[in-house]
Automatic annotation (TrEMBL), chains A, B, C, D:
Homotetramer. Belongs to the DapB family. The keyword Repressor does not apply. The gene is dapB. It is an enzyme of class 1 (oxidoreductase). It catalyses: (S)-2,3,4,5-tetrahydrodipicolinate + NAD(+) + H2O = (2S,4S)-4-hydroxy-2,3,4,5-tetrahydrodipicolinate + NADH + H(+); (S)-2,3,4,5-tetrahydrodipicolinate + NADP(+) + H2O = (2S,4S)-4-hydroxy-2,3,4,5-tetrahydrodipicolinate + NADPH + H(+). Pathway: Amino-acid biosynthesis; L-lysine biosynthesis via DAP pathway; (S)-tetrahydrodipicolinate from L-aspartate: step 4/4. It is found in: Cytoplasm. One of its GO terms (cellular component) is cytosol. NADP(+) binds at K37. Its EC number is 1.17.1.8. This is 4-hydroxy-tetrahydrodipicolinate reductase. Its main location: cytoplasm. Residues 118-252 form the Dihydrodipicolinate reductase C-terminal domain.
Amino acid sequence: MGREVVKMVLEDPELQLVAAIGNTSTGAVDAGSLVGKPDTGVIVLSNLADALSVSRPDVLVDFTNPKSAMPNTETALAYGVRPVIGTTGFTPEQIVELDKICRDKGIGGLIAPNFSIGAILMMKFSAMAAKYFPHVEIIEYHGDQKLDAPSGTSIKTAELISQARQELRQGNPNEEEVIEGARGGYYDGFRIHSVRLPGVFAQQEVVFGAFGQTLKIRHDSFDRAGYMPGVNTAIKKIMSVTGMVYGFEHFLD
Amino acid sequence: MGREVVKMVLEDPELQLVAAIGNTSTGAVDAGSLVGKPDTGVIVLSNLADALSVSRPDVLVDFTNPKSAMPNTETALAYGVRPVIGTTGFTPEQIVELDKICRDKGIGGLIAPNFSIGAILMMKFSAMAAKYFPHVEIIEYHGDQKLDAPSGTSIKTAELISQARQELRQGNPNEEEVIEGARGGYYDGFRIHSVRLPGVFAQQEVVFGAFGQTLKIRHDSFDRAGYMPGVNTAIKKIMSVTGMVYGFEHFLD
Amino acid sequence: MGREVVKMVLEDPELQLVAAIGNTSTGAVDAGSLVGKPDTGVIVLSNLADALSVSRPDVLVDFTNPKSAMPNTETALAYGVRPVIGTTGFTPEQIVELDKICRDKGIGGLIAPNFSIGAILMMKFSAMAAKYFPHVEIIEYHGDQKLDAPSGTSIKTAELISQARQELRQGNPNEEEVIEGARGGYYDGFRIHSVRLPGVFAQQEVVFGAFGQTLKIRHDSFDRAGYMPGVNTAIKKIMSVTGMVYGFEHFLD
Amino acid sequence: MGREVVKMVLEDPELQLVAAIGNTSTGAVDAGSLVGKPDTGVIVLSNLADALSVSRPDVLVDFTNPKSAMPNTETALAYGVRPVIGTTGFTPEQIVELDKICRDKGIGGLIAPNFSIGAILMMKFSAMAAKYFPHVEIIEYHGDQKLDAPSGTSIKTAELISQARQELRQGNPNEEEVIEGARGGYYDGFRIHSVRLPGVFAQQEVVFGAFGQTLKIRHDSFDRAGYMPGVNTAIKKIMSVTGMVYGFEHFLD
């Protein structure tokens, strides 16, 4: 993901790459060459604080992992740099604490488990439709090596649907599974189905059924790079925000 | 459609059938028997004014045709009956005039080319998505005997998308049609495709494409009866409305 | 289903309706009037043997239930009438026995759990594709009041896929279900997912995944009447067959 | 495509890379380093005849362009090397001529416009289904910068459907296009629709409609690399073939 961010920044004339953090064990590398582009003069560094101290950027983009993300965010804020963080795993207490630091510094920050505008719209529309169509099932598709089922996005979608729709336990109460698990995973009255196949990156379809009709909302993601328009939007919007925002959906109106 | 309405009203304990208008040339028929239900005591009549005068209903539901709909609406209003009209073809001037009569009488009315909640949500979501995903095409499917292409619903959807998105002429400017018409019908920078096949009632898919992802919103309608939940909602909501409303979407929040 | 058959026969000038069996407790009814058509002169009878004895048809179409189908088939054969049977529940021994009777009489018969040409092609193509694409999952959709999951058709499809493909246990061996059942029902190394929603009649999608691509075969059935072209084909083909055929797929080349 | 082939060969222990042809203007490059793999000892050369003369391979894979493919194929055959060619543009006369050379040399060759097993199955199944379901339309999706519409694959599919189905001019004879082109491109009685959107690589859906049902066959290709399993199969099968084969479908049974 880091490479995709570097590429996206280099390709947008409104943005400027001033530093890049990565593994430097193989010697000095120019950030441009890492992504198949001409040299940029920005040498990849290993220490975040040093890099921020020297380059003084407006924004830090971090796609590391839950363990590194909290200290990285604190380091960024210590240097007055706005963090745009693409990992999960922050506790509500941590977010409150980071929000306080942001406000003290008078700057903004964003923590977003999902930067895909398409996925966020899919979730939003699903919640809206659930108000009128309480009968719903979710089918999500991922690569066949994914470990967890159902996906985080499908559980988040299910949560939003649950909040929006009238309470309902769907299906025939006397339904019987001839093969165990055929009816999928149960979530608050409805079902989530997880398909795992090679050739698939990340897809989800939310199907609503009512007398004589079905309504389907489907998002197909073919590539990590699909997140970049969202990261780009976030980098620009974060400049006019104060406080720590949780969830990229707040940057869409 | 008239029969579907009769059936729906008879099946809802909150509603009461007090009159039915239809072809009476084959003799007296009970409205119940027309729809395979027990007799209701409501005999189908041929003259609307007579029927309204005798039965004094709260609401008239009309699924006739553009030519009859205007006089029928005027007759209903003359008797203080709220019209719920499922035909197209009203001019803006006629709607203004009917709105005035409604307000004079202190009652409400609805003219709705489409009562399908699913179709209306599809249009609404498409307009919302077009703001973020300006690249879009519409594919609509109807039975193979349909005369016009593209469908009224797809043109309405295209209109709403056009209003919501940034101006954009999609596609390669040097694109060439090896077979004329392959790229579909042109509407304000994007394309509409009309598929006509037996076995299909009415379906539409709106496809948005962006780097690395697609977002699809699809509505499949299998049956006229799919409109009935919308008509049912309209009959109930119309009681607390004043003025003539155009478009069922105004009855959804 | 019986009514659909009557309708189909009346609408095909190559076929002639000579008898109809049904519930006669409400008095004499013409078979035409049962299906909203003009009178045919064929009065619905309650006793199959009597009806066959009087009308001497070429073919009997039976869409009753597993319990009645066996005696009805025997009765038909006793009168030299070719049975076209649309129910399940025959044992292999019964089929062998019926085949023997057919051959003794020099006539043909058909027992077919599924008359949908589309469903049969879907199964056939799925088995063919499984040879090249061993990674597969089945998603089937039925109305929300259906009792059993997965559907008979999906199990039959799974069987055919299993026979055609190389042995393979799909997915990550360390996969974990966060919500039990999310990964669907297990069948010989792959998964079947059963969606149950109002507005759906019977749909099935077989999805094959391989590096960089997916192949999907989908059959959507909107209506019982979709089986009638298959029944029509069967009635005509049965005239030139000897012996009892099991499965409508043998009538497609 | 050349790089994908190099990668695929290096990853299959049954195959051995012995030469690679490419642009050498930037100095000597190891074929492994071109595809992000360790050095292989195979230096990319610019002259095909020299490379074949030195390395004496069993098979040449060529994904160049219509202009270079014919001389390259002739050069390969002159050295007794089996050509596997992934370009279009050969005339029937050229293929006859190449077949003769192959037979004289006692070796095999393959010219294949499409190496995607999924696409070939889609075409095959479509032709099979058209026999039973004569009502059909094709919808194909490609990236928004593609120049020609409809795609070569959709035209090839249309051809195969035409040969298989009974003659039929679909649709209402009085059909009217409110927006010109909405009904798509006309091909022998049916229609092809070309959708062009960013985020799409190559997708095609063939939809058959009949009373009460639809059957859909869909192939989604996300990546050039999806062709490689087909190229791999071809390299292995070509060793036991004599003569020039046109079309990869002949290598699938």
